[in-house]
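pinned: reference chain
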Amino acid sequence: MGTTSRRSSRRLLGSQHLPTKRSYPCSALSTYLVFDALIAHGDRHDRNWAVHVPPLETKYVEALCPSFDHAASLGFTLTDQTPAQHLHDG
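pinned: its structure tokens
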């Protein structure tokens, strides 16, 4: 089970991104919140956060996962007509 879990963790997150020492989640969290403010992300809720909890027998430690769910704020849901409509509506 341990080997399978390690492989799964590496496959999902890439082992180069898994922390091997304790980090400061408050620092990462504040960086995410500043990024949200910069892109006017208005949909941050409790289901937009995740914590990676590795198997106990690995060298990896718990960590806040990378921020995600920014698509709407970055304009990925806009069609070609939407920006023109926003300009027209004011």
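why pinned: The first strand starts at residue 51 and ends at 52. The chain has three helices and two strands.
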